[in-house]
Model the fold of this input.
Amino acid sequence: VQLQASGGGLVQAGGSLRLSCAASGTIGSFNRMGWFRQAPGKQRELVATITSGGNTNYADSVKGRFTISRRNAKNTIDLQMNSLNAEDTAVYYCAAGWMSSHWNYWGQGTEVTVSS
Done:
């Protein structure tokens, strides 16, 4: 299985971006999929997850601003990011896992830069 992330770019503070992660396989077979991010000099952190049943979870820092969703027919998950600020600047990675305790596959990352 390969995951291809896209949609990153440069945006002004307060703006929006939509990231997408396309899987080479059927995403319905994964227990969960998610987005992580890694800012310069910081550890990778979990941003949002979505289960096969559609349940979502978000980091406190993005709640109310980011929305994770899935398009099963396209084997794709998306991350809609609104009200972006400089602290959201990072490389964003999508991931997929067969079980709730482990992430089995990672995308290559897409860079998001928010200018203040």
Notes: The first strand starts at residue 3 and ends at 6. The chain has a mean pLDDT of 95. DSSP finds no helices and eleven strands in the chain.
